[in-house]
Design brief:
three-stranded antiparallel sheet, 30% strand, four-stranded antiparallel sheet, alpha+beta, Multidrug-efflux Transporter Regulator, Chain: A, Domain 2
């Protein structure tokens, strides 16, 4: 059961976020592959929490979904990964992501962690901003 504060999405919006066709999502609904809530008018709505089960099953697809949703950001160095750990100490937090076989750590404010409700296991995007990119050859 979705939480009382969970955002409910129309099937077209949910399909767009998942990077699938509306027809595919409707098939999932009818096959009961995805949990929905039915409105008083008989329309299906998908709890935002339910989408998390599907959005990041395939990291390549997740990368496309994230890039689509982050288009309004000018930075293109966006890496999609899963949160491995969060360590909060005072005002700051250390967030470690797994991006493929690599690990990347970001130091952000503890308030930012709380404001974004970040938790280990969630998929997020890291936006890298740098004036230099260096190449190292082993």
């Amino acid at each position: 059961m979705p939480s009382k504060t969970a955002k409910l999405l129309a099937p077209r919006e949910a399909a767009r976020l998942l990077g699938i066709s509306y027809t595919t999502l409707k098939r999932w609904i009818y096959q009961r592959s995805i949990r929905t809530v039915t409105t008083e008018g008989g329309h299906h709505r998908i709890p935002e929490d339910e989408l998390r089960r599907f959005v990041f099953k395939n990291i390549e697809k997740a990368d496309l979904v994230w890039r689509e949703s982050l288009r309004h950001i000018s930075g293109r160095n966006q890496l999609v990964g899963r949160i491995l750990s969060i360590k909060i100490s005072g005002l700051m937090a250390q967030v470690t992501l797994a991006i493929g076989d690599q690990r990347i750590t970001s130091i952000i404010t503890a308030d930012a962690v709380r404001a974004m409700s970040l938790e280990p296991g969630e998929t997020v995007a890291a936006l890298i901003k740098s004036t230099e990119v260096m190449i190292i050859r082993p």
